[in-house]
Amino acid sequence: MTGICGYDLSCFLFFSHYTNSRMKLSIFKTRFIKYLVLLSVICWFLFNYLLKTQSTIMFKYFVEKPPLYYVRAETMARLVCFDFQKKLSSPSLADIRNLIDEYNSPPSLTVDFVYQDKSGTMRSILKNVKEADLTAPEYTYPIKYRNLKGKLLVYDMNTQFRKKFEEYRRIANITRMFFILTLLLLLSTVLFREYSADIKREKHAVENEKRAAEFRSLHDSATGLCTQRYFKDLLGKEIIRSQRWKRPVSVLMCDIDYFKKFNDSYGHLAGDEALRTVAYTIKNNVRAYDIVARYGGEEFAIFFLGIDFDQAKSGAVSQKELTDKTVDIATRIKNNIEKTQIKIDHKHASVTLSIGMVIYTGGADYTAERLIGEADRALYKSKEDGRNRITLYDPAKNQFKTCS
User: Fold this and answer.
1) Which of 100, 138, 217, 281 is 20 to 30 Å from the Cα of 330, by its Cα?
2) Is residue 170 part of a domain?
């Protein structure tokens, strides 16, 4: 039965696959984080480059002027003031407004006139003018008429553009900071989620490894069956329940006949395969909740958890029927072991099984060791009588009975 591997191989394959998966996941995550950081840096440089390029273009085409421009702007402002005083010797506000509109046709200069009304409040000829604009002209010329005092304000539009451009730069820098903070926040969120997921995965892995270690400590590595200690612990608990509820427990001790001779004839690897085959056959012929253990060497132990418990509890099943049920299971195990062929290289071999059994129905002063000892006595009786047989021990009568 080469396809029937022990717990060792299945654990090795599972943990190899699990370790490889974790290594691949770790490599993928490391690469993902590197690419994410790289992409963030590229986005930052690209965003910064676009803002810087936009600022350069705006400055070059809308703000930057040769030095001669400012000399020309100041000359034009003086000419505007001279022309203003020349054309309006005794002006009215309507005349001033018409002239201001005429001056504001060229795009390079903007002209405004502010004056003090009768209430003492400063007024502007232009509409929608902010108070800050009234205090920030490039050129100011006091104007005085008979009944009107004011100031002629001349704004150099290029200088105004430069001021606005500085505001734009401040906003661009704030945008840069906001962008990089947003980028760092998103990157931190992703890294935090990955870190949290790592912690959860590590915790889950530790729990899995802990459960696997517990399973390995309670199960035989060669056959995957329970260990002797675990078997005794479970049997002891079941005996206590049986004493309370009068729940029957059947214990079988099984031993492979002439196993040393089998090892000497076919080798220890073939002996390991025989152990796995016997373990697999026993497991296949009992119920899923019955307990099977490798008790030691080539010896196996089985106990049945409450055969026909519902019927036994109601008194519908007699002691004989319980015995017959246990004998049927033991016979099925023995016969299937005898029929099973173990493939060894290009040959086939078979083994037989000697079985001793005892049925416990809830009597007082019983322990797991005592019950196992009684089943063991029945097993040795099977061996004495020629092996490959089943012997039932009756503790009440201290008698042995050959069942098959």
Assistant:
1) 217
2) no
